[in-house]
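Long-time lurker, finally posting.

We've been working with Signal transducer and activator of transcription (Pleurodeles waltl) and I want a structural starting point before designing mutants. I don't trust myself to interpret raw outputs, so I'm hoping someone here can both generate the structure tokens and explain anything notable. Sequence follows.
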Amino acid sequence: MVSSQRNASGKEEPEERKRKLLKGTAEGHDSKMSKSSLWSLVSKMPPERFSSLYLGFPRNIRHLLADWLENQPWMFLDCADPFCLSMAVTILASMVDELRSASQHCSNKDELLQQADCLEGICKRDPQQMVETFKGILEREKAAVIEQFRSLPINYYLKQEELKFRLETQNLHHKLGETQVLLDRLGQATKVTRSSPPDVEGIKLQLTSLIMSAVTLLESMQAQVLKRIHIWKRQQQLSGNGAPFSEDLSHIQEKCEILFDIHICLSQELMKTSAEVGTEAFTELPKQLSNSLITLVKSSLIVDKQPPQVLKTQTKFQAGLRFFLGSKLLDNQDKMPSVKASIITEKQAREMVLRQSVEAWTECAGEIVNNTATLEKHLSSKVYGAVFKNLSVKKIKRCERKGSESVTEEKCAILFTVKFNHSTFNMAFHVEALSLPLVVIVHGNQDNNAKATILWDNAFAEGERLPFIVSERVPWPKMCETLNLRFVSEVGTSQGLLSEHFIFLAQKVFNDNSLNAEDFQHRSVSWSQFNKELLPGRSFTFWQWFDGVVELSKKCLKNYWSDKLIIGFISKQYVHKLLCSQPDGTFILRFSDSEIGGITIAHILRNQEGAAQIQNIQPFTAHDLGIRTLGDRIKDLTQLKYLYKQKLKDEAFQKHYTKEQPTTKTDGYTPASIIMAVNNAQGQSKPSDTSISPKPEMGAHQQDSPVAQSPVYPSPMICSQNPNIVMGSQVHLGNLHLPFPGSYPDIQVPVAHMTSPSHLTGTCDTMLSGSPSPAYSPVGSMNPNTASPLCSQYPDLMQVDPPQFQTSMMLSEMGFNGMPLSNSISETTLNLDDIIDDLIDMAAFPGVHCTMPSSIEPTGERLQL
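Top reply, 14 upvotes:
Generated this for you. Predicted structure of Signal transducer and activator of transcription:
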């Protein structure tokens, strides 16, 4: 039993004991909270604003007391309560001592000591007035901080909450001590025969009132702690979207243990009081106190390490639990209890919370492997918990879905349960903890939509909800906060989204071209608009597009974004408007509207007459930027001169260029490098006027190249001053289709050049350079006799004299990483067998990965390699 120590007269201990208690109350907070104290903010204000806060109170005393003054429970001292008045006297005496101690290190020591003496006299004469004075000072400081900084530091509120809890804890101990004193007086009164019955009845009434007020105060304190646990869980859920989060639970565990001890003490006092006063005075109180204790125990088991919120079947994952009252309930257990994990549906989770038909669903929503762990004390931290290291969802049973709901919108949870008996209290405890909602998927292509479901639930779930109800429509400003959190946390940057970015995102999600941010402030976005309805003219949703941008930025663009080199979230039309007035070569980096996870360069070209043309280079994906970085691609393109607005390209991107290494021959080979060019850009050579128009049956073949994604067609070779540069778009050999009228012709096949037609401007081209001898040589004239089968099928070919053809291939993907080509491929003409033999030879090189068909068969009018 916890009670106040008393002297022979039954009075409180000397005031020194209270001073020690108060010192202990504030000790843990001085260091933690000083950085966010009111004084640290107020002292930065202008002098005229600063002086109006104190109304004659010496500012030098406020400065010397600084954080100490804020670490006292002024706001919770009600001097009408005898206990609070007693505490106020003790705190004021400690304040005078603190001031005298601080004055020893000041040059005006004598003046400060006089002020301390004067302050001590006022405190003794009217302690309530001094309490109200300090309350007023702190209230005015708080108002000034809110006015200037718009909010108070979160730690300020945590500190006030802590001060209140400590003061109430001391008040409860005081009440328990008073109960013991009254019980002693009641015992003495009943033994004295001359005591009049009114005296005994008066003591009984005081005892009854004291116990009931203690229970009320205890429940109020417990409600505060349970609220703090709910807040911690909510912050944990928001951290899943990238919000900052402190995992520290030590302060909550300490409070739970204090409450548990008070529960036990108060229960004992209640039993003693009932024996003296009679049980009829406390008819409901024992049950009320018991239920309160059970609630505390059940709330003390939490999931401190959440499982992944998107779970793939047959994939291992981990989870962890913490039990705040382990040291109080399990220290003397012979065998530690076991925790079991089960997966349940949203409906089952709701029934569990409401306690409706709990026994009816013995069958879970799926099967979890390795689903038991022991609840035990961790030797390093001295806290009780359970760790599941190899959990795995073996299978999942889908429940009935409503309307158009997909499997990736179906939310589940993992329920952790533990049962144990406690002989001291003669009670059996059944404690449960529920994980955050999660989505179970069976294939990786469901991951994106599952993440959308979790993001929405994490962001917009309300605190005390039924599992897992969430609004179908949310205010656009809240969505902006969520998107910003997601972007910043996933990319790992401190550079968040700007108001201009949110305008573009609003235009996209609402299909509204307004440029006024106010037009969107009072609108709300629905779940359907977020991730069910396709964007106009696209095959993907808003979330799928945004998530693609996040993934691209995380993998390839973090440093560029952090250095403010990418505008990114801006429409093509608005980019054109910005660039039209800019000098030649100005460019902007923006995320592609038409391609998920792509970034494009928009730039302005001006001819000699000054006429402007805006070009949008084909978007680069993460795969493209893995081959050649964004900085190096920008460096390669000489037509790019200024980053908008008028910042020299090299000045902006110099740190992002790859440092050139000295090239030396290795193993007899001359090193090669990849550079980027833009087809048909102004200032580059264009196809000649004798361009060959492709026949319908030779239609466009979609490229599989990571750099150039547009269709490619046969056309004459784009000339280059450097014979070592292979021009033209990249083509996988598997995409090369040679048309023949029948079976294999016995002809010499020219090496066909594949490039974009002249009307497809702005597509990308990767070139191979570095070899002193041409990787490919232009072919000679085709022999009309041997070519007659091909030319008779396509007579337009004979109109070109001489026909100049060359194959453009992505050499790095075919394995030519600086390796010489075989003689047969370097020849001016080849037959089909030579091509096949050389391709097989390529695959024999170590480190070369070529996918070769097992056989080559005619396919009608077309031969496919």
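Before you design anything, note these points.
The mean pLDDT is 78.
The radius of gyration is 39 Å.
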